[in-house]
TrEMBL record:
It comes from Tepidimicrobium xylanilyticum. It comes from the Bacteria. Gene3D superfamilies: P-loop containing nucleotide triphosphate hydrolases. One of its GO terms (cellular component) is plasma membrane. Keywords: ATP-binding, Nucleotide-binding. This is Putative ABC transport system ATP-binding protein. One of its GO terms (molecular function) is ATP hydrolysis activity. PROSITE patterns: ABC_TRANSPORTER_2. Residues 2-249 form the ABC transporter domain.
Length: 258
């Protein structure tokens, strides 16, 4: 469903800081894949998500989403099909608006008539049902401001917001990294539930090696812009933390992982 073909990206071309990050990088992602993307600092994980979302344009190569060449499309054109959640809980939700208004905004993403804040009973029910899946009782706080929510609750709300329009692809960029360990585990369980329920193809960047092993059907490791590991199925299921750490140690510094 997502194909990256011969992607190349060089930063600071032609000056002393020139850095060739990706050179003829290709990746084929199947519909329904839930991919954990790991790699050391500077491996290119965020840049890869940026190239997919359109935030950063590749110098060469093509990107196909569901058979459509989206290479020339800007970020705002891709955002109807591609949702993204960042590390910082304040980026995915608007604190000055209520949960209802945030969800209404997400539900209207890419639609012609923009924001619709008049309370619609049908939307209210739909939003309550969508929130119920979280098990956080946010459905009972539909008209409370998002500023009253914890970081974990906000990331959970961001998950519902980013999947409410049934995107083709969900990009999670270390979305639990700013949370305390217990909240992070709760948000990861919620992530798994939402991803399964929606069946949305997902790429999750994480520095947490346990999450990378536990969640998803496929694990990809990047190093200096190259794919150095790509496993799925039983190989992924049977992978132990020790094995992955030793693989990682061969190419990088194990201490970079929490
Ligand atoms: N806009 C930019 N301009 C110049 N260099 C950049 C830019 N974005 C990324 N880079 C460089 O590209 C390399 C990969 O960065 P990237 O953020 O994609 O790595 P990462 O794997 O996400 O790292 P981390 O785990 O530290 O977040 C780094 O060396 C970084 O300095």
């Amino acid at each position: 469903m997502l194909k990256l073909i011969n992607i190349s990206k060089t930063f600071n071309k032609g000056n002393i800081n020139e850095q060739v990050l990706f050179k003829d990088f290709s990746l084929d992602i199947n519909k329904g894949d839930f991919i954990s993307l790991i790699g050391s600092n500077g491996a290119g994980k965020s840049t890869l998500l940026n190239i997919i979302s359109g935030k950063v344009k590749a110098d060469e190569g093509n990107i196909f989403l569901n058979g459509v060449d989206i290479t020339a499309k800007d970020e705002f054109e891709r955002c109807r099909n591609i949702s993204r959640i960042f590390q910082d809980p304040s980026m995915g939700t608007n604190p000055s608006m209520t949960i209802y208004e945030n969800l209404a905004m997400a539900n209207n993403k890419g639609k012609k008539f923009g924001l619709k804040f008049l309370i619609d009973k049908k939307d209210e029910e739909f939003f309550r049902d969508s929130l119920r899946v979280l098990g956080l009782n946010l459905e009972g706080k539909l008209h409370s401001p998002v500023s009253q929510l914890s970081g974990g609750q906000r990331q959970s709300l961001a998950l519902i917001m980013s999947t409410i329009g049934n995107p083709d692809l969900l990009l999670l960029d270390e979305h639990t990294a700013a949370l305390d360990p217990k909240t992070s585990e709760i948000v990861m369980d919620i992530t798994d539930k939402v991803v399964r329920e929606k069946g949305v193809t997902t790429i999750m960047v994480t520095h947490n090696i346990e999450y990378a092993i536990k969640y998803g059907n496929r694990l990809i490791m990047l190093h200096l812009g190259k794919k150095v590991l790509d496993i799925s199925g039983d190989m992924k299921k049977n992978l132990t933390k020790e094995e992955l750490l030793s693989l990682f140690k061969n190419i990088s510094d194990k201490s970079l992982f929490a």
